[in-house]
Specification:
homodimer, mainly beta, Ubiquitin-like (UB roll), four-stranded mixed beta sheet, 8 strands
Chain lengths: 119, 119
Amino acid sequence: MTDERESGWTLDPKYDANGLLTAVITDESDGAVLMVGHMNAEALAKSMETRTAVFFSRSRQRLWQKGESSGNVLHIVDMRIDCDQDALWIIARPQGPTCHTGARSCFYRKLTDEGLEPV
Amino acid sequence: MTDERESGWTLDPKYDANGLLTAVITDESDGAVLMVGHMNAEALAKSMETRTAVFFSRSRQRLWQKGESSGNVLHIVDMRIDCDQDALWIIARPQGPTCHTGARSCFYRKLTDEGLEPV
């Protein structure tokens, strides 16, 4: 099934019941996934305007610019949207580590049959 | 704040209110994001068991193996989980195009100030 949202050239995000899109951030240098966050319409507009990643925090129920306290901002290089417009892929240039643990990426563990292991 | 879920070596997914995790699929060949889907506990178990991506369809409310009808299966190379264990990064070897539109990736459009453009 192809519709205007899928095949058209108009940005028409399909927000979920909480008004959010999923946003995947990858590093422009090597494609590593750095983090996954959520954006409401305001966060998306702020991200496009500032060219830095701004999310909506589900736990704090407020907008936050990634790096607002740590300084580890994500500079946006390119933004893409998927077929049904409910997910964003943002290619970014990270200023410092992305994860609040200090790791470069939030995805610092891999799944094995025995549990988790460091990447 | 560091806790066992963040720093430990036990797989302990933090499912959302609908019992789902976000799963990002990238292509092992070049790191392109191919799609974003959702997995419940059963989909995650099936994915690990079959080493192919199995999702939970929110629209159809059932498990589906990506490629079950098209044949375009995603062979899992590596699976990673993020700091708070509510998102998965799956590095995959795609068998054919991933998007149901026939595109290699669901992210075939980029955002510009004027709307969307082909990547």
